[in-house]
Design goal:
CATH class of the domain at 48-130: Alpha Beta
Radius of gyration: 26 Å
Structural class: alpha/beta
Shape: elongated
Number of helices: 3
Number of strands: 7
Strand content: 15-25%
Strand order of the largest sheet: 4-3-2-5-6
CATH topology of the domain at 48-130: Nucleotidyltransferase, domain 5
Oligomer: single chain
Largest sheet: 5 strands, mixed
Distance between the termini: 95 Å
């Protein structure tokens, strides 16, 4: 009888670690893709205008809700926080669109516009719906 300490084994491919790596890559790419999606904003009842035109998608969409709450990308911000956010984005390249609900007082709209201008942004758009 012959003793064999090292028996030759057939190599085999383990699939479980490969599945783990594939799921990790899938989750990684999903997170990256979600962050690349543009901000759609809130569902607002926008004012109507006869002179609307299509603007390029802004880098920052500022929403003003019916109650006057200001939000950017789902975060409610004060005027100081809004100005700080815009300053950190880099003023020279920032394109901002302000979308105010139809019933928002004009003073609230002007206050938001002042905060945007105070941050140094000069490329400002105003969202409106075309008249049907």
């Amino acid at each position: 009888m012959r003793l064999r300490y090292f028996e030759p084994r057939k190599g085999r491919i383990e699939i479980i670690p490969m599945i783990d790596v594939m799921f990790f890559l899938l989750v990684f790419f999903i997170f990256i893709t979600v962050q690349m999606l543009p901000d759609q904003g809130l569902n607002l009842l926008l004012p109507q205008s006869n002179a609307t035109e299509e603007l390029p998608r802004p880098q920052v969409l500022i929403n003003i809700a019916q109650d006057g709450a200001v939000s950017v990308k789902g975060r409610h911000l004060s005027m100081n926080d809004l100005a700080q956010l815009l300053e950190t984005l880099g003023v020279a390249q920032t394109q901002v669109t302000i979308a105010a609900s139809k019933g928002v007082p004009f003073q609230q709209f002007v206050t938001v516009m002042d905060a945007v201008r105070h941050a140094g942004v000069s490329d400002i758009g105003i969202a409106a719906q075309p008249v049907p």
